[in-house]
Specification:
The chain has eleven helices and 13 strands. The protein is an alpha+beta fold. It folds into three domains: 47 residues, no CATH class; 212 residues, Cupin (Jelly Rolls); 57 residues, no CATH class. The chain has an eight-stranded antiparallel β-sheet with strand order 1-11-8-13-7-6-2-3, covered by helices on one side. The longest helix is centred in the C-terminal third of the chain and has 24 residues. The chain is globular.
Length: 341
């Protein structure tokens, strides 16, 4: 074996080792063997020492891998309590296997991501699709021009079109029994993509490329489903910081916020948690109820009070039974589609 301590001897015998190409490295080994057969050389070890392959990035495919170093159980506690959390990333490339700007651009320009689901904004105002769509498809040149001028793009949902996100969202869906989807926002100019607002769903935000300045206020609003287009900052500022690649943020529903970035590209990924509510359950029941005779009976034509009382009791009993069946089943609750009133 060639000891590292022998390098000075080698320099004196054959001169400094050439640098550069792989062939040059092999030439060094050949010259070493020719110069001194008394020093055994392990070719494999030499090659490995001179040119170690880069360690492959680990794929994030589960909730535990996404929230690490938090334990999954600890994150689920935060989710249930809707407790705001921010963690500075230890590695800037930690989430790069999930999504990159090149990946996002490729699926948009290649028509993989449906053009009608793409939203483009400038200074928080929506840009009409006529400026970036042509014959129902994204015009890559026009979109690139808008982005050079400081526009932002919003792509939701992404998980059906990117396998890594599909696997991750599927695992989170299994762990939480909630409706889960992924989306991304890329901003290229000042002002951010969206106006000051709050979301009715909980969000994991991970910064992928560039930086983004977040301002988040608390406590959360009481009614998550009452939107206000004239909303202004309210409550106390609980977070005022720059998110950098690798950073992790859990933003509970109802927290008013706005984010901005500088002149360079910024890309962040959001994982949406949409738990079904009692409203969603009742709404999901409506198509089922019309199939039953007691819910089709004309209420003004029941005759005497006894008939009205009997029908009222039957309706109440059946409603309680149907709602109970859905709420008692975790799978049933998970299958309820969420929708804001």
């Amino acid at each position: 074996m060639l000891a590292v301590g022998s390098s000075l001897w080698l320099d004196r015998q054959i001169g400094p080792a050439p640098s550069g190409t792989w062939l040059a490295r092999l030439d060094v080994v050949s010259r070493i063997q020719s110069a001194s057969r008394s020093i055994p050389v392990d070719l494999n070890e030499w090659q490995g020492w001179r040119c170690r392959p880069k360690k492959a990035k680990s794929m994030i495919s589960s909730l535990q891998e996404l929230v690490s170093p938090l334990a999954e159980a600890d994150f689920l506690d935060l989710l249930r309590a809707r407790s705001f959390t921010f963690r500075r990333g230890s590695r800037t490339d930690r989430f790069q296997t999930l999504l990159s700007w090149n990946m996002l651009r490729d699926i948009i320009e290649g028509g993989v991501f449906p053009a009608e689901k793409l939203r483009v904004t400038s200074k928080t105002e929506d840009i009409p699709p006529i400026f970036y769509l042509e014959n129902g498809k994204v015009n890559a040149g026009n979109l690139a021009k808008l982005l050079r001028q400081g526009a932002s793009l919003i792509a939701v949902p992404l998980d059906p079109y990117i396998p890594a996100l599909n696997v991750l969202c599927s695992d989170i869906r299994t762990r939480t029994a909630e409706n889960i989807k992924a989306g991304a926002i890329a901003t290229t100019g000042d002002g951010g993509a969206l106006k000051y607002h709050f979301d009715s769903h909980d969000l994991i935000i991970i910064q992928l490329e560039g930086n983004k300045h977040w301002k988040i206020y608390g406590p959360p609003v009481a009614n998550l489903f009452k939107k206000d287009e004239t909303l202004r900052p309210q409550g106390s500022l609980i977070f005022d910081d720059l998110m950098r690649p690798g950073d992790f943020l859990f933003l509970p529903a109802g927290h008013c916020h706005h984010c901005d970035n500088g002149p360079d590209l910024s890309l962040h990924l959001g994982i949406f948690f949409e738990p079904p509510t009692g409203y969603d359950t009742v709404r999901a029941l409506l198509p089922q109820l019309i199939e039953e005779e007691i819910f089709r009976a004309p209420l003004t034509r029941l005759g005497d009070a006894a008939n009205r009382t009997a029908l009222e009791a039957a309706i109440k009993s059946r409603l309680l039974e149907k709602i109970g069946q859905m709420l008692s089943s975790e799978q049933g609750s998970a299958g309820v589609k969420t929708k804001s009133p």
